[in-house]
Peptidylprolyl isomerase
Amino acid sequence: MHNTTITSQSIQRSLALVLLSLLSTFTAYGQIPVQRKLDGIIAKVDNHIILRSELEFSYLQYLAQTKKQPSPNDEQLKCEIFKSMVQEKLLLARAEVDSVTVEESMVSNELNRRIDYLASQVGGTERLEQYYNKSLKQLKDELRRTVRNQMVSEKMQRQITEKVTVTPKEVRRYFNQIPADSLPYFSSEVELGHIVKYAQVSRQQKAAARQQLEELRNRVLAGEDFATLAKKYSQDPGSAEDGGELGFFKKKELVPEYEAAALRLEPGQMSNVVESMFGFHLIQLIERKGQEFNTRHILIKPATATVDIQDAMAALDSVRTLIVNDSITFAKAAKEFSDDKNTKDNGGMLQSRMTGSTYTPMDEVDPSVFFVIDTMKVGDVSKPVAFRTEDGREAARILYLKSKSSPHMANMQDDYQKISAAALAQKRDKAVDEWFRKNIDTVYIEIDPEYDRCKVLQLTQ
C-alpha cells in the first residue's frame, strides 16, 4: 500500500480516487444493472457490509476518471480499492463504539455541496434530476446516510492523524528516495485569489417578491391547495415538484429563520412570509415526529437587476485601486471586503476541492478565468469582471495572480509544498495502519475467500 515514490501515474491515481469518493455516491444510481448482475456480500465489518457490485463499480469509476481501459494487471488495483473500503468500514465500526458523530447540519451542508458540484458538472439541477429520474429531495433522502457515514469515517481518521507532522528533514529524505527516472513532470500551474461582491437585491425587488408570496398566501387562505401552488410557483427546484415538501429535519439543520417560523406552527398551519438567505418563504408544517419536523414551502427569490452588478463592480474597482496603490494587501482586502465566505479568511486564495492545494494546472483553469489571467503578470490584480456563482447568484470579482510556474520536473525548490504534502500523506497512512493493527481485534471482520488474494487483513497484522 505504501509506495515511497511519487510518480505522475501515482499522482493521477490519487487524484482520481479522491474525485471518485466525491462522485461515486451519486453516480452509483446510474449503474443499477451492474449491481444486480454482480450483487453479493464480499466483506462484513461488524454491522457494515461491502457488496461485490460496490467494488466493481468503484473500479469502473476509477477507469472512467483516469480514461484507462481494463487490464489483466488491474487485479492489484481492485485489491487496493477493496482494502480502502474495508478500512473505511472499520473506521465506521470503531466510530460507533467510540461514539464519534458529526452534526446533522454539517451533513446537510456537505450533501448540498456535493449535489451542487455534481449538478454543475452535468449542466444544472434539472439535468441531474432527469439523469437519475429522481427529484433533488429524493436524491438527498437516499444519499444522506452514505454521506454521514463518509464524514464519520473521515472524522475518525482525522483524530488518528491530527498530531502527525513532518519536518523539513523528513521531506528531504522522502524526496531523495524518489528514483530520478520516476520524478513527476508538472505542467504550468497558477495560484489564484479572488475578491467577490454579490449583486445586492434592491428594496423594490424584495418588495415584489414579498408581494407575490402575500398574494399566494391569500389564495391558500381562500381555499386553494398549498402543495399545488408550490408545484406551480416555488423557485426551489429541489422541492417544487413534490409540492414544496422538504421531508423530516432535526433542529439546526435548516436556516434559523425558516426553522424558527416552522416550529411555531401547528400541523396544517401556514406561516407569514419569512425571509432567509435563500429568499422569501411561505411555510406549512406537515407533521412533527419526536425531535424531527416535516414542512413544505413556497420559495420566491428576488430578481437581480443588471444595475446591481454595476454597483458591485464599482465597489471592487475601488478595492482594486487600494491594492494597486499598496494601500492594502490583497489578503487583507479579501478579509475586509469579499463576500465569498469560503476564501475571505484564506487571503482570498482559491483551493482545489479535490486536493486542497492552492495550485491549479493551467489546463484545468475555468475558461472564463483563463482568458482574464492569460495576459496578466505575477502580482497583477485584474479589473472587475462579472460572473455567476455555482449556486446561480450574479456577482463580480477581481482576480489576483499570485504565482505561475513553468513546466518542469519536480524539485525541492519549486515544489516543496507538494512534496511536503506527499510526505505527510505517507506518514499519516502509516499512522492509520498502526491504528488498524491495534484495533483489528476489536471488531468482527469476515472476508469472502474469493478475495483472500488481496491479503486485506495482513495490512493490519
